[in-house]
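## retry 2 of 3
previous attempt timed out at serialization; input unchanged, resubmitting
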Amino acid sequence: MCSSDLADMSPANEVPPIAGLDVSASGSATILYTRDANGVVNDGTVIYDVNYRFPGAVTITGLHIHPGAAGVNGPARLNTPLSVANSVSSATGSGTLSYKVEANNQNNLDALRIVLADPTQAYMNVHTSDNSGGATRGQLQPTSLSEIGRAHV
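## retry succeeded, writing output
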């Protein structure tokens, strides 16, 4: 089965909001998943595609989905391989991040089930070396593909 969710990201959506940071980003999370005999999601893959623009050079240290409603911070789940030790630098401040992440542990499966049940109860964010707690964030929003197979998540 497949689901697709979008996120318009902004520093104003971070908790607390980051004033004065001129960043724009948009992201998508395409989720491929399977269900067990009882209809419960038991495996999945998230394909990230995020376009970003910072005002200048940037080092990106994280990209993931967190369970959490708007205005609420939640734990990082469905982590891409980005980290301080495995960062991406852009001299221009612009670029695209594309990653594929397996939901291969209970925390990731739980987060995946939240996203599939109601994408608006999760958010995507990008972390940088200058904003380690998150530089830009957006609540996930369902697309027409998101309606495929929502029951029993």
